[in-house]
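Moderator note: this is an archived Q&A kept for reference. The question asked for a predicted structure of one protein chain; the sequence and the answer are reproduced below.
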Amino acid sequence: MGKHVLYIAGKLFPVNSGDAIYSLGILERITSAESSFDVLSYQYDETDVETDEYRYYSTLFRQMRLVPYHPTKWENYKKILIYGDSTQKYLQRMIHEADQLLSQTHYDVIILDHLRMYFLYETIMKHVDRKRTKLVLIQHNIEHLNAREEIRYQARSKDKWKLRLLNRGIKRLEYQAIHAVDDIWVISEEDKKLISDMGKAASQIHVIPPYYNYPTIKERENVEQPSYNLLLLGSMEWYPNVVGAVWFIENVFQELVKLDDRYRLFVVGRDPSPRIQKYSSEQIVVTGAVKSVDEYIRSCDFLIVPNTLGGGAKIKILEGIMKGIPVLATKESTVGYSEDIFDEDFCVNHPQTFVQKIIQLNKDATKKVSFVNKARIIIADNQKLRGILG
């Protein structure tokens, strides 16, 4: 028998971030003809309802309501004062929309996608019978650990204290949320263990590995033939990407060009930090935001993922593999992906080994093609999510 499901997310469109890609990948896998899905999310200034992605996903749901996200100063203050968590997407209109939906329909399952939407918990509790409605929280990361790590990353004391103040209640809120819901969905086995260590029964924590049905855009001949271009991809203001990019430039790329000056590095992503921009040159191209990353994936030999910070799984690895570019990554970046994908050739941490692997693999077309083909087959298995709704 089908279920009535309410899925509440902080961001689905545009499909230009790891959060949106992971969320839509889950939605595509759990929707079915037997169940009805109502989706409630935010609409941002850059949300375009005329895109193919928006049209496609709209067909999967009974209804989709997008609430314009324009918080007032008071709403921004309130999320700090009440929740002690600056990531909460608190908006009075969102509470009103959720209240309306919950008053009109009895839902068998309610899914809160990301801790940032937990401010709606009290609204949900006004309408549901907890014996009849399952409540699910999707944890993209362990948020209080990410907040702690971001505080350590700040160079200036005043920035550290500011972040401590803005997120003073995030650990308490995350513990509360984890124990208030029936099930937790996480992105990796590592995150499952961390939440289990917070006191949640392992049987109530389910791993949903990342999947999104990207088309292949990089043809085999483009994989085989070196262009001597490398790609760093992501939001370049986010501290794990900043730290990773700087580490790669200083310890790997600068050594690489001493051995082969044909190489160029493209750093692609919005709001690049000044720490990255200072390296902009003829050989290190810092693009800022781009409409599509596809042209860079087509023209580069490897997607480089040098992150050592930040929890969860790196969705850009999924995007790179599915679109057809070989990926070289640090061990920390490969969390959430099968060890069968990242062997010793494509999982590297030492700077000198990184340099050697780039040079060696760019001479070995067979290994590059084999990596992409095998990785796509393994990730395709993540399409299967049977019985996750209970």
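Archived answer notes: Residues 239-259 form the longest helix (21 residues).
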